[in-house]
Specification:
Blueprint (H helix, E strand, L loop, with lengths): L1 E6 L10 H11 L3 E6 L3 E3 L5 E7 L8 H10 L3 E5 L5 E4 L13 H14 L3 E3 L2 H7 L16 E4 L2 H10 L4 E6 L9 E4 L4 H11 L4 E5 L8 E7 L2 E2 L1 E2 L2 E2 L1 E5 L14 E4 L4 H16 L4 E7 L2 E6 L6 H8 L3 H18 L6 H6 L1
Length: 348
């Protein structure tokens, strides 16, 4: 199998990224792996989507750190044609480009949409991912699994929303963002600080304001879904409890939160069940559901992470299960002779 990953930039990849773990394991299994930065695409005169990519080839490294060091320091970029690749996985984070390369995320999606027409399986489905990358996508899921939500840039609207919440407490964050960046808890006691927080969050766009869920003080759950269903290997779910280890309320791993494996309870599985049909409808192959109690706080459709932590904590080969599934999709595509479209292949 020839597998390409779209990332922000190879220079900014880190050894604890899920993409690096997937790339290392795929390479060790004998697959050809290519890493493509958002600025590396080429639409050539023949109408093909090409890229200047870092090729990994077939290598065996025991540690992610050694693997990343090798490809960052000892590999030259080579020109590839994506029509020659079986799978293109979109693993870039739009939030990393805000204010510096605002053009990059949209460009990556547009090139990927054309690549899908050439027969490469693109995951998550790039046509629907164009809509799903925005947090407004969250509002298309059943109301029963969503916290009360306001999206606005008007300070007075935010204040009215906070006043109307139980306990007069809410969470405010940028509509575009990830990794717990720019997330604040506000309440009636915030006073003048509330104005400053609202101004900071809305400086570069809209704010999303949600009711505060009391169980959030104990952290949240990151549940990985594959083909619209919870990823499970044997008896073990890819389900991670993330919690704050400081006075900072954020439980995101990138914000310094702690992690532990957890068995999902009935509420968590019900949330995943209700989210599944929409994920399948939109070709969202690999996602991360962030759950508090019986509510989803966010859906990560771009770069759902945590798989490396899940594997290290449990010893379960979740990457292997994902790669097995990708190989199955390639076989299905070949057997059906091109009659299955990208959206179908994404979630079959």
């Amino acid at each position: 199998m020839k597998l390409a990953f779209v990332i922000n930039d190879l220079a900014t990849e880190q050894s604890n990224y899920t993409t690096i773990r997937l790339s290392r394991i795929a390479s060790a299994r004998g697959h050809t792996v290519a890493l493509i930065g958002l600025g590396d695409f080429i639409y050539d005169p023949e109408g093909e989507i090409c890229a200047m990519a870092t090729l990994v080839g077939k290598t065996k490294f025991e540690k992610d750190e050694a693997f990343l060091e090798e490809i960052q320091t000892n590999r030259e970029r080579e020109r590839i044609c994506l029509a020659d690749y079986d799978i293109l996985m979109l693993r870039s984070d739009p939030a990393q480009e805000m204010g510096t390369r605002d053009w990059a995320p949209a460009a990556g999606l547009l090139f990927s949409q054309i690549a899908a027409k050439s027969g490469t399986i693109v995951l998550n489905d790039p046509k629907h991912l164009t809509d799903a990358v925005n947090k407004t996508y969250f509002q298309h899921f059943p109301e029963s699994v969503r916290p009360k939500t306001l999206i606005t840039r008007e300070p007075e609207e935010v204040k009215r929303f906070v006043d109307a919440q139980k306990g007069g407490k809410a969470v405010i964050k940028p509509l575009q963002g990830s990794g717990g960046q720019g997330v604040f808890i506000i309440d009636k006691k915030s006073g003048r600080n509330m104005n400053q927080i609202i101004e900071a969050v809305t400086r570069d766009g809209y704010a999303i304001v949600q009711e505060y869920l009391a169980k959030a003080k104990d952290g949240d759950i990151r549940m990985i879904t594959l083909n619209g269903r919870p990823l499970k290997v044997g008896d073990t779910y890819a389900c991670l409890h993330r919690f704050s280890q400081t006075e900072d309320h954020r439980s995101n791993i990138s914000a310094g939160g702690g992690v532990e494996m957890i068995e999902p309870d009935e509420d968590m599985l019900k949330v995943a069940e209700l989210a599944g049909p929409k994920l399948i409808e939109d070709g969202m192959y690999l996602c991360g559901l962030d759950i508090v109690g019986d509510k989803m706080m966010e859906i990560n459709v771009d770069t759902p992470g945590g798989i490396n932590f899940l594997e290290d904590l449990s010893g379960v080969d979740f990457c292997g299960a994902i790669l097995d599934d990708l190989e199955r999709k390639v076989r299905l595509k070949e057997q059906y002779g091109g009659s299955l479209n990208n959206l179908q292949l994404a979630v079959l």
